[in-house]
Amino acid sequence: MPFIPHDFFQLLLSSREKTTPASPAAVTDTMCAMASSPPRTPIDIRDNDFESLSIASIIRSHPHERLFVRPLHWTLRHVNDLLGCSFIHHKSSPPLSRLSPPSSPNRKLDSSTVLRAQTTTGIDVSSPKVVPRPHPSPNDQHVRILAQGRSLFAKAAALSALVSNGPAALERTSKQLIFHFDGHSIPMPASIFSRPQPTLPPGGTLPILAFLHRLDIQRSREASLEYILCPPPSRRPSSPTARLYDKRLAQTTPSDPLQDPYILAMLIALAQSQQRQYARARLLSTTQSFQVCLSPLLSRSSIAHGLTPTLATQVHVIVSDTKVKSHLVLYTADVPSVFLDRLTSPHKRPHAAHHLAIRSIDIPFQPYSSFLERLTQTVVPPSPKRS
């Protein structure tokens, strides 16, 4: 399939002058054509140049690179250079220790201590086998399924049961998450969890968390390239198409799973969904009510003094891996409004410098009893106490 980015970008950049927009099928076909072309050597441009340019101008100045592709085909080139983002991974803190200090194995109880304990409690404390083990709580069972379960559906159900009963009071929503770019909408399959927000219209919730599996991402990535393996009109694989398919799949699969560009697209889609909720709230509520919905990154004093700060929305993505039984990975990003504006209006130059850091941390499953507390403190940090 020939590589045709020039005509497409000319259509994209002149869309404002045309009355009839390109159909979704045409856009999808063009994306597929671009994805099937061989990679080009990236042009060396300083990061400062990217920060001052619009997305459309960056794409137009690089006609031989695959920059306008679906999120499943994003690479670190899109993350670092086109969107100005970076991944930062923090190692998890050690699991919480038990409240009672462990007894020394070399310490022996004298006969008087044993006799006094037996007389008081009626239990032979000299035998370690009589120490009763606490029964696992329902939350412990959910964490066990989340850690050791093989069914992806069961893992999502276990997480839903955990966070819905926890302090965060998150609700699993049936609404589909959509990634928006310049009028185009791309579905992002995942389990979405929202938090009730009383300052929004009745029944309004804010989507703050998405849960998905690495296996689902890989399967979706493979399915998105099947047109290369089985091209029309025969729809049958061949040795040349199989080699091209393997090559393209290797190019779109990140070498480091922790830095999967698809996670960035998921975070952006969550932030875009919150931005639309905020826009509805501004139309239906007072300015003060809208300020309550905003991220803590925006101080009330800045609004009171008439400043124009950059609003930010905090969103999270949890990624589970069936091959990893010890922990899951939580991604967090504070997405500023200026970043989302670049995607909504890719032809406009950004009015402020921006850099989006995607922070990730491993959350160990053990001990099961404190997993929900540790997860909740990371997703919804406790508010500082007032003096």
DSSP summary: helix tally = 16
Q: Biggest sheet, in brief?
A: 7 strands, mixed
Rg:
26 Å
N→C terminal distance? 66 Å
Which class best fits the helix and strand makeup? Answer: alpha+beta
Shape: globular
Helix content: 40-55%
The low-confidence runs, each spanning 5 or more residues with pLDDT under 50, are: 1-48, 96-107, 287-310
SSE order: HHHHHEHHHEEEEEHHHHHHEEHEH
Mean pLDDT: 73
- Overall structural domain count: 2
Placed side by side, the strands forming the largest sheet appear as 1-9-8-7-6-5-2
Give the percentage of residues in beta strands: 15-25%
Total count of strands: 9
Structure description:
The protein is α+β, with helices and mostly antiparallel strands. It has 2 domains: 5-82, no CATH class; 135-298 and 309-379, no CATH class. Helices cover 41% and strands 16% of the residues. It has helices at 5-13, 24-36, 47-51, 55-60, 76-82, 111-121, 138-148, 152-165, 214-224, 226-229, 239-252, 261-284, 287-293, 300-304, 337-344, 371-379; strands at 85-90, 171-173, 178-181, 184-187, 191-196, 205-213, 312-320, 327-336, 356-364. It has a 7-stranded mixed sheet with strand order 1-9-8-7-6-5-2, with helices on both faces. A two-stranded antiparallel ribbon has the order 3-4. Strand 7 (312-320) and strand 8 (327-336) form a beta hairpin. The chain is globular and about 85 Å long. Residues 93-112 are annotated as: Disordered.
